[in-house]
């Protein structure tokens, strides 16, 4: 069974669950998960976790993401993108500078109301299921952060922009909100995810390419070992007498690992004395030890 993360290029028309299903068929293993839903019309970077790395899914979902989006002004739809039913159309009476000013005004924190066509649940029901049944329910605004936003091309009524944002941000809704601010409405025409944390578009592989690499016997060269995701954290290696502690997922004192006895300032990668990756540990200053945050028990490949 393969363990690690593979950078998949999700193509238009596939859901994230479709990608996982196809990867299960390609690799002939069940333990596979994706790291955050991409709409069927969207394409781009979708890190997929294999084997023990599926324990990483929630951690990668929380990472910041970068998108290239085309916003179409003058139209509002029920899905907030051009695949939906048109609800209203308005004349676009703004100029380039007005449109750019509105786009840039969303830099920073803002409260975003999730779209009805989303996988969020209200009272146990997914919003898109309610929407398809013709029902609309009240949704609470959620705090999101636009870390960076800029206009790449202005061809009104279309605006191409690059957005780096926090988890939980809907680019469709951002387009809708910008359109509302301009008074002419707006929706998303296309979306390309170019980055998720340390995974970039240039390194992503289509499903057909992954299948080719599998047949060539070289796919493992494109699977990132679990510990590489945490390469920014310092590495700690256990003393041989204390391997059993971390093999069982237990906390340990700093003196039970190689190096000086000071506790680290933040998370660390922990390996046993033979170099096998165990997981990520963090300092507990009250008890003067390191305790597990995420254990993989040999999650390297």
Automatic annotation (TrEMBL):
Keywords: Isomerase, tRNA processing. InterPro entries: PsdUridine_synth_cat_dom_sf, PsdUridine_synth_N, tRNA_psdUridine_synth_TruB, TruB_C. Gene3D superfamilies: Pseudouridine synthase. It comes from the Bacteria. Its EC number is 5.4.99.25. One of its GO terms (biological process) is tRNA pseudouridine synthesis. The keyword Lyase does not apply. Residues 24-171 form the Pseudouridine synthase II N-terminal domain. GO terms for molecular function: RNA binding; tRNA pseudouridine(55) synthase activity. The keyword Acyltransferase does not apply. The active site is at 39 (nucleophile). Residues 172-230 form the tRNA pseudouridylate synthase B C-terminal domain. It catalyses: uridine(55) in tRNA = pseudouridine(55) in tRNA. Responsible for synthesis of pseudouridine from uracil-55 in the psi GC loop of transfer RNAs. Belongs to the pseudouridine synthase TruB family. Type 1 subfamily. This is tRNA pseudouridine synthase B. It comes from Lacrimispora saccharolytica (strain ATCC 35040 / DSM 2544 / NRCC 2533 / WM1) (Clostridium saccharolyticum). The gene is truB.
